Amino acid sequence: MNDPIVDCIIVGGGPAGLTAALYLARFRRSTIVIDDRQSRASLIPIVRNLAGFESGINGNELLAKMRRQIECYDVPVVEGRVTTIREIDGRFFVQYCSNIGSSFRNLVAHRALLACGIRDKLPPINEAVRLTQRGLLRFCAICDGFEAQGKRIAMLGPASRALSHALFFRTFCQQVAVIASDIDVLTQQERALAAQNSIDLIPTGALELPDNTEAPVSVACQNGRRHVFDAVYPVLGCFPQAELLSGFDVQRDSDGMIVTDKHQRTSVNGLYAAGDAVNSLNQICVAVGEAAMASMAIHRSLPANPL
């Protein structure tokens, strides 16, 4: 193993990982980013609630801008998937598989930052990723609910969870429905709440997805009735992309999210985490803020690096 030991290895090249790389580079800390190009941000057609982008910005375009920014500081961004992280005597040994080839490589760092994000559970339909990029499937009412005003929207998932999301979405539009296979589990109180808010309860049927960007999503119900929506929000849950932590004693909550303190430190000394794999409010601005906090903590934890 001839690679030099760096100050920090960042796992993940989404908004959190790239922000941390920027901060650490400006602290004059040697840093490497390992990015599997699976950032959740890459699926966003347009981000409109990110300050400074008055016309919004495409998720991939945002990531490209962030990558170009850290290129100015000569931060290496390696395309690959991290398979294991081990901590031995205060150093972190990271093994990854290159996206270009199948060979495994190893890196060593004094600190490691997990910015590996989460992955949404997609409905069992063809081309779900493409439909997400087109805005027909959406995952964040906080991000784009404002643009749903006057549109027909459905929440797809377990009935109680979908109803909770639908009630929140009534902030933005009047035509909201719940599509679920377990409508019958809703209590009388929940059904009354849905009725009071004019939320349709639809037993799951087949989703018929359009071939062009402008066409709506059609749902053929079990009773033969057909409903049409401008967008469907799957609320099937998500899971952290933290398979690399298997066998690694990092504290996680009941949902599998990484637990950190206010400085983004995990239960393992020298290991930090930021972004969607940590918090429940999955927002770019939150991930960026956590990355800044983590970077400052990492910098302060390392020996001074005077000129």
Automatic annotation (TrEMBL):
Which InterPro entries does the record associate with it? FAD/NAD-bd_sf (IPR036188), FAD/NAD-binding_dom (IPR023753), Ferredoxin-NADP_redctase_2 (IPR050097)
* Pfam families with a match to the protein in the record: Pyr_redox_2
> Per UniProt, which keywords does this protein have?
Flavoprotein, Oxidoreductase
Please state every residue range assigned to the domain named FAD/NAD(P)-binding. 7-291
GO: which molecular function terms?
oxidoreductase activity
What is the name listed in the Swiss-Prot or TrEMBL entry for this protein?
A: Pyridine nucleotide-disulfide oxidoreductase, class II
Its lineage reads: Bacteria, Pseudomonadati, Pseudomonadota, Betaproteobacteria, Burkholderiales
